[in-house]
Amino acid sequence: MIPLGLLGDDHVYSYSQLSSFDECKYGFYLQRIEGIEEESSNAFAERGSLIHDLLDRWAKKILTKEQMLDEYERRYSNEVVTAWPRLQAAKGYAKKAYENGIQFLKDFDEFEGYEVISAEEKFKLNLKLTNGEERPFIGIVDMILRDLKTNDIIVCDHKSKSMSSFKKDQDKMYRQQLLYSTYIKEKFGKFPEILMFHLFNENGVKPQRLFSQEEYDESLEWATKQILGIEECSLIDWLECKEKSDYFCWNICGARKACPNGIEPTRKKKTEEYEGYKGDLF
Length: 282
Description:
Blueprint: E1 13-14, H1 15-23, H2 25-33, H3 43-59, H4 65-79, H5 86-90, H6 93-107, E2 114-128, E3 134-147, E4 153-159, H7 163-188, E5 194-199, E6 208-210, H8 213-232, H9 235-238, H10 247-252, H11 267-275
Parallel strand pairs: 1-3, 4-5
Antiparallel strand pairs: 2-3, 3-4, 5-6
């Protein structure tokens, strides 16, 4: 029974929820339980959503490679509308981000050597936790691919990460692919052989790793910890902000306009924090 009925007995979990709770309990509370009326967008997400949509429509054979570029140029100014954070804006990344997308689409390799089995495939299943209980779990698989040489099944996810940021966060990021592998097993009767990311900010580089049963089990343990943590939170627990605000709080978090941590520090301190930021450039 979830304390205070904050989520409700019919709540359905997703990877993004578990990741959000892991990042900040209060941010999760504001967005998922309090249901703040207006979640704050950011330029990173808007640009990423646009390119993601183009890739999805290409995979479904709605757009050709050439049409993707036309659509990008036509839609960009209408969909990437939030101001870039000061760190990026000061270094001219607004222009660079736009031009990076154009170059990516011009060089897009159309996943040569792979067959696209499906794109943006939604699923819902009962995720079996490590304590033996089950919880409803939903997700969307960006692409399911088949390697034309090896016949391997591949789970692929489009990301706007820079390579440096991906390398730093990859173990956390692969949790999503591993949890989604539960659905692949339901669909194909076996786990995928390969987990792949498609980094369109890095001109389509495709880092990948082999599916590992050990890593899959570890991801289930992590998911179980997050889910049980969510269900065990009292109202006082939910109101616990991150101990220290950071770049994510000021510029990325969807709840930043409703959270005290979303207020940027004084200019001197902010400059020091920005200079120490090692995340994505766009």
